[in-house]
Design brief:
By secondary structure, the chain is an all-alpha fold. The protein is 70% helix and 0% strand. The chain has ten helices and no strands.
């Protein structure tokens, strides 16, 4: 966690609450460590913050094996694609668009390298960041059907919000985040 703390220190006092929230969420809760760090990684990559993702991976230790890292990247990328398409269909609200097949390959959703629940949590968290109502509802329904409780789902969304906020804080003028070397 030292590399993560050093990276985030550059956000200054304005982001102190975010740093405390991240410590609390990553330190324990209703989700297993693997799911917590997978969600955090996917959200960091969805915000384009490779340095934050790298520091999270180190902080996650054994929880962040190659399969989890690969699935987090896949969830961030797939949701970047899907959230645009499904958000468009929802925003337009015309039945004609709803009836058109999406025709986009999404095989990773069905066969993740980790497990379905972890991949769905990562996808839900990124979809929440991207503001895609359709995708958020779809991923939440899959998780609920798999027996995941609302408090667990909400923990993933809270983590998404915190990581999104930290990635934003790292872009502030005067922050040393852009030049941080690890």
């Amino acid at each position: 966690m030292e590399a993560l703390q050093a990276l985030l220190a550059s956000t200054g006092d304005a982001a102190r609450d975010l740093r405390v929230n991240l410590d609390n969420l990553l330190g324990g809760g209703e989700l297993p460590a693997r799911a917590r760090f997978g969600v955090a990684l996917a959200c960091a990559w969805s915000r384009g913050d490779a340095q934050l993702a790298a520091a999270l991976r180190v902080a996650g230790g054994e929880s962040c094996d190659d399969a989890l890292v690969d699935d987090a990247k896949a969830a961030a990328a797939l949701m970047a694609m899907n959230n645009v398409v499904y958000r468009f269909r929802h925003q337009i609200g015309k039945p004609g668009y709803e009836s058109l097949p999406v025709r986009l390959r999404m095989q990773r959703l069905a066969a993740p390298r980790t497990d379905k629940a972890t991949f769905e949590l990562m996808s839900l968290a990124v979809s929440a960041i991207n503001g895609c109502e359709h995708c958020v509802k779809a991923h939440e329904a899959v998780l609920a059907a798999a027996g995941m409780g609302e408090s667990q789902v909400f923990e993933a969304v809270r983590l998404a919000g915190v990581v999104c906020g930290l990635a934003t804080a790292r872009t502030w003028p005067g922050s040393s985040a852009a030049s941080f070397a690890h």
